[in-house]
Amino acid sequence: MSTGELLNVEPVELKFPFELKKQISCSLQLSNKTENHVAFKVKTTNPKKYCVRPNTGVVLPRSTCDVIVTMQAQKEAPPDMQCRDKFLLQSVVATPGIAAKDITPDMFSKAPGRVVEECKLKVLYLPPPQPPSPVLEEPDEGVSPKVSFNSRNLNGPEVTRQNVDSDDKSSEARALISKLTDEKNAAIQQSNKIRQEIELLSRGVNKSQGGGVSIAVVIAIALIGLLLGYLLKNN
Description:
Blueprint: E1 2-3, E2 7-10, E3 13-17, E4 24-32, E5 37-44, E6 50-53, E7 56-59, E8 64-71, E9 86-94, E10 117-126, H1 156-209, H2 215-234
Parallel strand pairs: 3-10
Antiparallel strand pairs: 1-2, 2-4, 4-8, 5-7, 5-9, 6-8, 9-10
């Protein structure tokens, strides 16, 4: 805050949160600490860049006045975010009852017997405000936090590789079972065929020998039984 004989000016640094292509404003508060009417005027080194409302006015005795300074939207940022622009606020004791429209530039010219108070203001660029961080809420007492997993995101390549290996092993197992089933069915068919041939052979022998069984037939039946047992055991 700048404390003069006529006006207190707050703040003495105009701070703009700089953002490209966006108008930014800040305010000044002028406080008249005298019993007089005080006229003021705001000047800047870069009038095309800033808009000051009001740029001239009157502060009543023991009262305040707010001045809004607006920086026009900028297309590019200055080097190192340093600003060389400056403002000058001039104030002078005015005639009681004077209005803002009655203020003239001659009132602020320095002349014998006239006190023109001056306050220089700097311009500072600030980084733009950051968005607030999300607030983490604690879970209710006695309630376990829920955790969800995405199987596609949890060790994705490894899980995919395991699925492929599992599918390959399942295919091999199905193929082996199918092969064993086919061999078993073939063995059963062969066994039935041998059994039928034995029955036919036995009937033929009985008819030819009147119920007697020769040693050759017994040996043949035994060999066929051994062959059948061997086939069933292997399958």
